[in-house]
Amino acid sequence: MIIVGCAVSMLAGSMEVFFSLLLGLVIDSALASQPERVFSNNFLLLAGAVIFFIVIRPLSFWASSFINSVWINPNINALVLSRLHRHTMEQAISFFDDDFAGRISQKQLQASRAISDTVNEFVNVISFAAASLIGSFLLLISIDYRIAFSLTLWLVLYCYLIRWFLPKIRERAASRAGARSHLSGQIVDTITNMRTVKLFAHQQHEDRAALEALENFRDKAKGFGVVASSFRYFLMLISGILPVVLVGGALLLWVQGLATAGDIVATGTVAIRIAQMSGWVSFVLMAIYSNVGEAEDGMRTLAHPHALTDVPNANSLPPLKGHIKFTNVSFQYGRKVGGISDINLVVEPGEHVGLVGESGAGKSTMVALLMRLYDPETGCIFVDNHDIAMVTQDSLRGQISMVTQETAMFNRSAMENISYGKPDATPKEIIHAAKQAQAHKFILTMEDRFGRTGYDAYLGERGIKLSGGQRQRIALARAVLKNSPILVLDEATSALDSTVESSIQEALKEIVVGKTVIAIAHRLSTILRMDRIIVMQQGRIVEVGTVNELLSMGGVFCQHWDKQLDGFIGFDQNADEKLSSTMS
Question: Model-level pTM greater than 0.70?
Answer without folding.
Answer: no
